[in-house]
């Protein structure tokens, strides 16, 4: 692993240390796990947006009536 320096709020460090103690893990493990989850989610999100924009460009979008039907199915007022 490559070391890096990050400034973290004291309150967050205390929370991390508490979790680390409760999980019998080092603080660095929790930080790496949090970063991994964040990066994986952000990569997924960016890809989903790109895929959605591609669908729009190809005309693969729901009609007004399809959207309204879905709202009605979930009991949401779409007026």
Can you describe this structure?
By secondary structure, the protein is mostly helical. It has one domain (about 10-75). Helices cover about 70% and strands about 0% of the residues. It has helices spanning about 10-25, 25-55, 65-75. Helix 1 (about 10-25) packs across helix 2. The longest helix has about 30 residues, at about 25-55. The termini are far apart. The mean pLDDT is about 95.
DSSP strand count? 0
Count of individual domains: 1
Dominant shape: elongated
What is the count of helical runs? 3
Unreliably modeled segments: none
Distance between the termini: 54 Å
Largest sheet: none
Structural class by sheet pairing and helices: mainly alpha
* Whole-angstrom Rg: 21 Å
SSE string: HHH
Strand content of the residues, in percent? under 5%
Proportion of residues in helical segments = 55-70%
Mean pLDDT: 94
Please describe the topology of this protein.
Layout: H1 10-23, H2 27-57, H3 64-73
Helix pairs in contact: 1-2
Record keyword descriptors for this entry.
79 residues, mainly alpha, 0% strand
Short account of what is shown:
The protein has 79 residues and is mainly α. Helices cover 70% and strands 0% of the residues.
């Amino acid at each position: 692993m490559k070391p890096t320096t990050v400034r973290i709020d004291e309150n967050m460090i205390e929370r991390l240390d508490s979790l680390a103690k409760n999980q019998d893990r080092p603080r660095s493990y929790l930080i790496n796990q949090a970063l991994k989850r964040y990066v994986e989610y952000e990569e997924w999100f960016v890809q989903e947006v790109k895929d959605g924009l591609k669908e729009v460009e190809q005309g693969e979008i729901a009609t007004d009536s399809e959207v309204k039907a879905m709202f009605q199915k979930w009991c949401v007022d779409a007026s």
